[in-house]
Specification:
The chain has 2 domains: about 130 residues, Rossmann fold (3-Layer(aba) Sandwich); about 35 residues, no CATH class. It has 8 helices and 3 strands; from the N terminus they run H-H-E-H-E-H-H-E-H-H-H. About 15% of the residues are buried. A 3-stranded parallel sheet has the order 2-1-3, with helices on one face. With about 170 residues, it is mainly α. It is an enzyme of class 5 (isomerase). Its EC number is 5.3.1.9. Pathway: Carbohydrate degradation; glycolysis; D-glyceraldehyde 3-phosphate and glycerone phosphate from D-glucose: step 2/4.
Length: about 170
């Protein structure tokens, strides 16, 4: 009922679609990562691949006329902790702009001890890191606090810095 009756600017799917168009056509982002932090949603990215890429994967408009803009991004992703050891490095420190949609349940359907709170802490840490990054000064301070020598800091610090401001 909400989608049928709400004004366009209050429809979350419309807002997300417009953000996707913005990143794809105005920022040159060719891909979008869907990163659910729940194993029950492990096929969620594939679902969106089918829905988005099939629906928008056309070079013509509804009238059959060729378009002069990008019609859709490449959608991909994995559950959060799987992806962290596969492609998060590229998202955080790489040269490509990769907008990410992080999705997490407020309540776990499979509560195991303190697993869900730890997973949510990780979820929020990843989104915060993408938004705000980590400066060289902060990296150096953390290394010195951990007892690293100046030589170790000089050798390793640049590999731990990331700029932030990643969507």
């Amino acid at each position: 009922k909400h989608f049928a009756e709400a004004p366009l600017e209050q429809k979350l799917p419309v807002i997300l679609a417009l953000i996707g168009i913005w990143y794809n056509n105005f920022h040159g982002a060719e891909t979008e990562a869907i990163l659910p932090y729940d194993q029950y949603m492990h096929r969620f990215a594939a679902y969106f691949q089918q829905g988005n890429m099939e629906s928008n994967g056309k070079y013509v408009d509804r009238g059959g006329n060729p378009v002069d803009y990008q019609t859709g991004p490449i959608i991909w992703g994995e559950p959060g902790t799987n992806g962290q050891h596969a492609f998060y490095q590229l998202i955080h420190q790489g040269t490509k702009l990769i907008p990410c949609d992080f999705i997490a349940p407020a309540i776990s359907h499979n509560p195991l001890g303190d697993h869900h709170p730890k997973l949510m802490a990780n979820f929020f840490a990843q989104t915060e890191a993408l938004a705000f990054g980590k400066s060289r000064e902060k990296v150096e301070a953390e290394f010195f606090a951990a007892g690293k020598s100046q030589e170790e800091v000089n050798e390793l610090a640049e590999f731990k810095v990331f700029e932030g401001n990643r969507p």
